[in-house]
Amino acid sequence: MPELPEVETIKRTLTPCLREQKIARVEVYHPGVIAAPDPETFSRLLAGRIITGLDRRGKYLLVHLSGEYCLVVHLRMTGRLVFTEGAAPLAPHTHVVFSLAGGPSLRFVDTRRFGRLYLAAKTEVETLPGLRDLGPEPLDPAFDALALAAILAGRRRPIKQVLLDQRLVAGIGNIYADEMLFAAGIDPRRPAASLNHEEVARLRGAMQRVLEQGIANRGTSIRDYVDGSGRQGSNQEHLQVYGRTGRPCPRCGQPLERVRLGGRSTHFCPRCQV
DNA sequence: ACAATTACCTGTATGC
DNA sequence: TGCATACAGGTAATTG
C-alpha cells in the first residue's frame, strides 16, 4: 500500500516524465474518485495546463500546475498513478486518464476506488481536509528525538497507533509502523508515553532508517503497489516482521506473532520487542 | 478529549 | 466446482 516511501518513489519516477508537459485533455471514467471540484469542472480546469513539478506531503502526491493550481492525489490502498507512452489499451479499473500533448498519458488506476483526486488553487492546498491537520514529516531533519518525545508525551494510546495517526506524524502506514517498532525493539502495544528517553531516541532513528531503506528499495510491493513507471519495488524482500507471522524472528529465532491493534494486524517478536 | 467502530470497495485466499 | 466468508488497510464519519 502506498505509504511515504512508495509515494516518494512515485514522485521521483514521475517527475522526469511529467515536468514541463502539457495536459491536453482529461477523461474521467469514474466520477466518484474526484473529490473536488465536480468532475466536469475538474476536467475543464485541468485542460491546457503545464505540469511544473511534483511534491509529496505525507502520503499525498502534489502535482503543481501552471496558473497557480495543484492536483492533489491520495492513492489510499490500491491506487496507482502510471505514466504510459503512446496509446496502450486501458488497464482494468482505469478511472482517470490525463492525456499529455504529444501522445503519452498519466493514468489513475484503482481497483477498490478508495483513492481520491482533488484540484485546488495553490493557496487552498494547505486547507484541504486531509492535509490541514497533517503532522510533521518524519524524514525532516527537524524531526529529532525531542520532536518525537513531544508527540508521545501524555499519550496513553499504544505506540503503534500513535505512529499511524497522520495528525501526529505524516506518512507512516501499517507495514512501516511494524517494521520500525521491530527495528527499535519496542512492543507495539506499549503506551506511547511509557517510552523513556533512550527508547524515544532509538525509535526516531529506526523510523528514519526504515523509511530511507524503503525509498532506497523503491517501495514495498506486496499486492498492488507499482511506481510511476509501472515497476514493482523490492523492499518486500527486506521486511523483518510484516506478514511473517509464525516464522522465526530474524534476530532471535523466536516465532513472530500477530495481534490486532486498533483493528489492524500487527506483527512483532515477543522476545525482542519489550 | 479520546477511543472504538463502521463505511467505503474489490480481489484473493480459505473452508466446506 | 461452487458458494460463502474473512481479510487486506487509509481515512472520514459516527458512536460511545
Automatic annotation (TrEMBL):
Signal peptide extent: none
Domain named FPG-type: which ranges?
A: 240-274
GO biological process entries: base-excision repair
Names of the cofactor(s): Zn(2+)
Q: Which InterPro entries match?
A: DNA_glyclase_Znf_dom_DNA_BS (IPR015887), FPG_cat (IPR012319), FPG_Glyclase (IPR020629), FPG_N (IPR035937), H2TH_FPG (IPR015886), Ribosomal_uS13-like_H2TH (IPR010979), Znf_DNA_glyclase/AP_lyase (IPR000214), Znf_FPG/IleRS (IPR010663)
Q: Which reaction does it catalyse?
A: Hydrolysis of DNA containing ring-opened 7-methylguanine residues, releasing 2,6-diamino-4-hydroxy-5-(N-methyl)formamidopyrimidine; 2'-deoxyribonucleotide-(2'-deoxyribose 5'-phosphate)-2'-deoxyribonucleotide-DNA = a 3'-end 2'-deoxyribonucleotide-(2,3-dehydro-2,3-deoxyribose 5'-phosphate)-DNA + a 5'-end 5'-phospho-2'-deoxyribonucleoside-DNA + H(+)
Alphabetized UniProt keyword annotations: DNA damage, DNA repair, DNA-binding, Glycosidase, Hydrolase, Lyase, Metal-binding, Multifunctional enzyme, Zinc, Zinc-finger
Instruction: Give every Formamidopyrimidine-DNA glycosylase catalytic domain span.
Output: 2-115
User: Where does the source fall among the domains of life?
Assistant: Bacteria
Positions bound to DNA? H93, R112, R155
- Textual note on the cofactor: Binds 1 zinc ion per subunit.
Q: What is its EC number?
A: 3.2.2.23, 4.2.99.18
Q: Where is the active site?
A: P2 (schiff-base intermediate with dna), E3 (proton donor), K59 (proton donor), R264 (proton donor)
Q: What does this protein do?
A: Involved in base excision repair of DNA damaged by oxidation or by mutagenic agents. Acts as DNA glycosylase that recognizes and removes damaged bases. Has a preference for oxidized purines, such as 7,8-dihydro-8-oxoguanine (8-oxoG). Has AP (apurinic/apyrimidinic) lyase activity and introduces nicks in the DNA strand. Cleaves the DNA backbone by beta-delta elimination to generate a single-strand break at the site of the removed base with both 3'- and 5'-phosphates.
Q: Which family does it belong to?
A: Belongs to the FPG family.
Subunit notes for this chain? Monomer.
Protein name (Swiss-Prot/TrEMBL): Formamidopyrimidine-DNA glycosylase
